[in-house]
Write a structure and sequence with these properties.
two-stranded antiparallel ribbon; globular; mainly beta; two-stranded antiparallel sheet
């Protein structure tokens, strides 16, 4: 699925843990912001937003 971002330069982590290494970034308005699959992991908070 494609992901509409609410801000620019969102980190992509190596695993479902927010403490895992950052392996890249999603850019707002970019054409490559998509996911093949997504698994539930630890809650990640960034300002008022969060995802698990």
């Amino acid at each position: 699925m494609y992901c509409k971002l609410t801000r620019d330069h969102v980190p992509v982590h190596a695993s479902r843990s927010p403490s895992s290494p950052v392996v890249g970034y999603l850019e707002q308005g970019g054409a490559a912001n998509w996911f093949v699959t997504e698994l539930k992991g630890e809650t990640y908070r960034d300002g008022a937003g969060e995802n698990d």
